[in-house]
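One example copied in:
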Amino acid sequence: MIGIIIASVILGILAFLFLVVYILYRITYYSPFRKQLCDFELQRSKNYKSYPPLRKDLTDKFMARAYEDAFIESFDKLRLHARVYTVRGANNRVAILCHGYRGTAYRDFAAASKVLIELKYNVILIDQRAHGLSDGHKITFGIRESQDLLSWIKYAKDKFGQELELVLFGVSMGGHTVLNIADKLDENVRIIADSPYTSPRTILRNSIKQIHLPRFIVYPLVNLAGIIYTHENMNRNNLVESLKDSKNEILIIHGTEDKVVPYEDSMLLSAKYNRRVRYELFKGGHHCTSYLVDYERYVQVIKDFLTQRVNYYQGKLFDE
């Protein structure tokens, strides 16, 4: 009888643990959520309420541009989608844009795409796996997304020529995605990352901290959910290691009021690789809102990085 009771208790605990892990998977990794399908509705809208006219105007104009749909197959047999904007006079100049976690490509690149098109870059605006028109339901915080990006680079070379003048631009999770393959790129590829995190572990632990839960208990369960349901360990993919052997020029943009990915996280990359990483802080910027805080400077920073017209300021704040 005692053995039966003990076995029942153990089974009950395991069943409860399995339920908790599954719920954490749905909350953390599953996609899409209803709100992420809207190009105008932001999950953390309180950070954006001060800037709706500019954001909506940029997004409306971007959505009105003509494009062609592109589809490729991922390494694990998902059908991935992108919008391709072919710009007259761009020739072999290509920018591949990677949006953020539960974001949309239109929403995250309303500002940057305008700059790149004006600079005569063909633009490949991808839907990350489990987002938009791309297949899948599992987000891996840049791990598998980075492998998808390598496939999109191959697509770009097949379409626009093998000798590309290539720019990779990512926002938040997309920023991690583009930086994560820096050690696999030709050294002439330029990388721009807006509000990137240094590792999936870092962003998940910070998110747990933001909702006032004990990280030493919750994070191992969240990571276990990732291992079981996405087959990826969130302790992988530290950008400090990915950038170690990279020779690429990198621009990182971050806002000082970012609570989702504190700017101190990405600043570690500038501190360690300051000869290659150009770091621009935007005073008052929340997560991925630097372009809304100071649109003119945001545009100029990107233009200067891509044309190398001026010197850069490592980690300094700029007051108006």
